[in-house]
Design goal:
206 residues, alpha+beta, Pnp Oxidase, Chain A, 11 strands, binds flavin mononucleotide
């Protein structure tokens, strides 16, 4: 039986497919227009899941790690503290590939990891962390949460510096990757379980 799958005329076995998944994830983080740049992540809020879009900031295949940023005051932080498990959803419509990942999160706040990422971030991105009061607070009127006198058109390192205390970096170690490829000649699906002992790889019925 043919134990490979052909994508864009390239033949992959399960190991090659896993490498291809990591390559797609790395590209997603690096290329802003890539379909994998803005996945959905789900956390548990008590007994109900919450799902939202985040920007995939960095992927470190050797460490099996995905990184996103968030506001330390946002509700998802409390959810992650209560339950470190996060589910991720990626879909590349052009490639017709969906990835579903399971990860274990670590929250970084006010430490070396965070400082490095903060220093690498653009001034405009840093303004997200200046909102007052905290994200998700109810307001009387629609507002971006920035002070009335805040000048968006002349950002400086000083004008955004206070955002640092709200800036959190979430590192996520991948424990499972599920790959689905939609093809006219028949869909294909595979699953990878990652643990200390290595990777278990399976084909699944789509
Ligand atoms: C394209 C896009 C990118 C986003 N990127 C992020 C992000 O990187 N980090 C983040 O915390 N929220 C991001 N958001 C906002 C979240 O989807 C969400 O609305 C917000 O974080 C509140 O989530 P929470 O209430 O569950 O904490 C993004 C939204 C969109 C539409």
């Amino acid at each position: 039986m043919q134990n490979k799958v052909i994508i864009n005329q390239i033949s992959y076995d399960l190991e090659g497919l896993l490498q291809n998944c990591w390559r797609r994830l790395v590209n997603g983080a690096v290329v802003a227009k890539n379909a994998f740049h803005s996945p959905s992540i789900a956390t548990m809020n008590g007994d109900f899941p919450e799902i939202r879009t985040v920007i995939l900031r960095k992927v470190l295949p050797e460490e099996k790690t995905l990184i996103f940023y968030t506001d330390y005051r946002s509700p998802k932080i409390e959810q992650i503290k209560a339950n470190h498990k996060i589910a991720w959803l990626f879909y590349d419509e052009k490639a017709r590939i969906q990835l579903r990942l399971k990860t274990i999160a670590t929250i970084h706040h006010n430490n070396e990891v965070v400082l490095t990422r903060w220093n690498e971030s653009r001034l405009e991105s840093k303004t997200c962390y200046l909102v007052q009061p905290a994200p998700s607070t109810k307001t009387e009127s629609p507002t971006d949460g920035l002070a009335a006198h805040f000048d968006r058109s002349h950002l400086t390192a000083e004008s955004v510096a206070l955002g640092y205390e709200n800036f959190a970096v979430i590192t996520n170690v991948v424990t499972e990757i599920e790959w689905l490829f939609l093809a006219r000649e028949g869909h294909r699906r595979a699953k990878f379980i990652l643990d200390q002992d290595g990777v278990k790889k399976y084909w699944l019925i789509p």
